[in-house]
Amino acid sequence: MTRMMLALIVFFAAGAAQATCIYPRAPERAPDGKSATFEEMAAAQKAVQQFNEDINAYNACLDLEMSSLEKSGSYDENRLTELRAMQAKKNNAAVDEVQAIADQFNEQLRIFKTRDKQD
Q1: Are 21 and 63 contacting, i.e. CB atoms less than 8 angstroms apart?
Q2: What HEC string does 1-47 produce?
């Protein structure tokens, strides 16, 4: 079962107005490109890709949560504006984190590739 499907199931099981989007756990720091094995680098790449997919599912959950709140009619327009701003900040922070992790990995990957060319 994909994380996206799981997020949707959790969203609907918890009730539309009470959905909770769980922020995914970031992968461990990328292996040191100066000493990492090919297998370690490949595993790290998969972890970064999975984290990206998990962040996409998290952001989709936030979108569903916001849509549900908007449709519920439980909040006035001022409160919805505040909630939209909060959701946008959560989304942007998640995207920034996945980008930073991908950048760290890519830096170590460049070091790894350079090292292999020198051997």
Answers
A1: no
A2: CCHHHHHHHHHHHHCHHHCCCCCCCCCCCCCCCCCCCHHHHHHHHHH
Q: Say what angle helices 3-14 and 38-72 make with each other, to 10 degrees.
A: 30
For the chain, domain boundaries: 3-118
The reported pTM is: 0.76
Averaged pLDDT, 42-70: 93
Tokens of 61: 């959950």
Q: For residue 2, which amino acid is it?
A: T
Average pLDDT in the 36-53 region?
A: 97
Tokens 């949707």 sit on residue: 8
* Angle of the 38-72 helix axis to the 77-118 helix axis, nearest 10: 170
Tokens of 3: 């994380």
Mean pLDDT of 4-21: 52
Q: Three-state DSSP class for 97?
A: helix
